[in-house]
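step: validate -> pass
step: tokenize input -> pass
step: predict -> running
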Amino acid sequence: MAKTLRSLAGHVVAITGAGRGIGRATAAALVAQGARVAIGDIEAELAEQTARELGPDVVGLALDVTNRPSFKAFLDEAERRLGPLDVLINNAGIMPIGPFVEESDATARRMVDINLHGVILGSKLALERFGPRARGHLVNIASIAGKAGVSNGATYCATKHAVVGLTESLRQEYHRSGVEFTAVMPIGVNTELFSGLPHPRGFKTAEPEDVASAIVEALQKQIFDVYVPKPMGAVIRAGAMMPRRAAEAIARFLKSDEALSRPDHEARAVYEARLAATIGATPASAATPVRSTGSTTSTTEAETQAA
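step: predict -> pass
step: emit ->
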């Protein structure tokens, strides 16, 4: 028997890194379902502009996911203006790529701070609200990279593996509490973050709206594992049952092992420049790629807190 779809009308949803990309598309999809949405973004003006464009049931607020007072203030203001929080979607993230040993320590720290510590912090602040109410839904945006390692994205993959593990652990810790959890694992999505990168053979690059639709479905049906596109779930599960060499051979056939290894530097220029601009640096000084074996390492510490 098919699950009854839960209505999202009137639900209060907070989304991090929602000024653009997956976050914005998800906000739009939830508004279409009748939800009230708080958009948080490191770029306050962008958050406010996006909120105005999406309608009267949306508020745009400044948010630095790496800072507890900022994150708490974001959720407090969202609840003050919209009502008690029903859903938090931890979406903010960055993806500098390139050879592991050429990655600056500052870049690695920033990636971990945003992609992992930001999710941990948001999860704690949301669960402080959800626990006493015995309800709520925490959605953490991970990646297919959270299920498999990819060349030239070691630290990024590490953060996404950690997000998957965090969400699985919280699901166990809050079993029968009334709080629900979802881990979202999209393949490369057509946003600035994935710009200039190839997609695996046999799978087209997903659109932000595809991920947004999957998140809406997960909220309506209380789904934990969400793969975008859905067939990727079967590929991951099949690979887990295979001998390692066989699974790696399939990855090479699909060219998923090359997903981050051969970027189009020009196509990624806007993304890298925006990372640099976030901390007032110039692309030449802070985000110039270090070229080696055809790949890129961003040396910027800036964050573009949108997946």
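step: describe -> The chain has one domain: 12-286.
step: cleanup -> pass
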